[in-house]
Design a protein that fits this description.
Length: 300
């Protein structure tokens, strides 16, 4: 869910200029694919594919010719220095990018093989399939814990599709909170305002809200950067537990965190995807000297 300013900007601007049609997009150069997507390294069927993606804010190009496949299984980490385009990249994956003023892109992004920028795709419905958790926990502070969990469903009208009345909704709230490892903390205060929870609990509440939508993909943009080490450890444990059910893409500034939680890592630098591969290999035997410099802390 975007913040209020995003929504206002989108309403003011209307949709972004249409991305080019699939047939107009040049097939990625074979060498580029080989560099970014090494099939020998065990990448399996793609859940999301990104081809020839270039993105701008007004005249400023912020992503350049990205080609990347994100497999359904496991956790994909996106790392790189501040301003390299990590948030922009994942916001493109659920069409939140277009809510920003001046945002424009070219290229083709598919989810299960279908172009997510096709004219007949409703971005709101897409965001149900591709959920997002943000850097700063953003529950509705005055809204109860229970209503926070259901907020995404209410906003997208999906709550009406939950059969079985209040009992079914109550079960959904409980299941979502259990999946987000928050149930035990809040079961006796479901009616308390979300803003009364600790920051770590608020972040798990946001994860519960995302899970209640039954997404297929969960995007997380630095979900632990506002949290202390204990709360961070809980979210990392949660990511381990959730990866069996969801395709997870996590942006992190923290290289150790990428090493701990992810199966694959993509290293971005100045809007380019420098290297992408299994996390172990990328950290122990990087193929690009820029990756090596970054993962060994020479810059960033
Ligand atoms: N709403 C916006 N309008 C104009 N430019 C933007 C906007 N959002 C981001 N940018 C620019 O796009 C580039 C990429 O920004 P982005 O937020 O994707 O980087 P990031 O890698 O997520 O950085 P950080 O690690 O600091 O979160 C930056 O140069 C930034 O200034
Ligand atoms: Mg960012």
């Amino acid at each position: 869910m975007g913040d209020a300013s995003d929504v206002v900007a989108r309403r003011a601007l209307g949709p972004i200029s249409s991305p080019v049609a699939a047939s107009e997009v040049e097939a990625p150069h074979p060498e580029r694919r080989a560099r970014n997507l090494d099939r020998d390294e065990g990448l399996s069927t793609a859940k999301l594919t990104v081809n020839a993606l270039t993105a701008w804010f007004d005249d400023q190009q912020v992503l350049t010719d990205i080609a990347m496949e994100i497999p359904a299984e496991g956790v994909t980490a996106v790392i790189g220095p501040s301003g390299c385009g990590k948030s922009t990249f994942i916001r493109i994956l659920n069409r939140m990018f277009e809510m920003k003023r001046g945002a424009r892109l070219e290229g083709r992004i598919t989810l299960d093989g279908e172009d997510i920028y096709a004219r007949d795709v409703d971005p709101v419905q897409l965001r149900r399939r591709v959920g997002m958790v943000f850097q700063r926990p953003n529950p509705f502070p005055a809204m109860s814990v229970r209503d926070n969990v259901l907020a995404g469903l209410r906003l997208t009208g999906k709550v009406r599709q939950v059969k079985g009345g209040d009992g079914a909704l109550e079960r959904l709230v409980r299941q979502s909170l259990e999946s987000a490892a928050l149930w035990d903390d809040v079961k006796s205060r479901l009616d308390a305002p979300g803003g009364q929870l600790s920051s770590g609990q608020q972040q798990r509440l946001c994860i519960a809200r995302a899970i209640a939508m039954e997404p297929e993909v969960l995007l997380m943009d630095e979900p632990c950067s506002a949290l202390d080490p204990m709360a961070t450890a809980r979210i990392e444990d949660l990511i381990h537990a959730l990866k069996a059910r969801y395709t997870i893409v996590i942006v992190t500034h923290n290289i150790q965190q990428a090493a701990r939680v992810s199966d694959r890592t993509a290293f971005f630098l100045q809007g380019e995807l420098v290297e992408y591969g299994p996390t172990d290999r990328l950290f122990t035997a990087p193929r690009d000297p820029r990756t090596e410099d970054y993962v060994t802390g020479k810059f960033g």
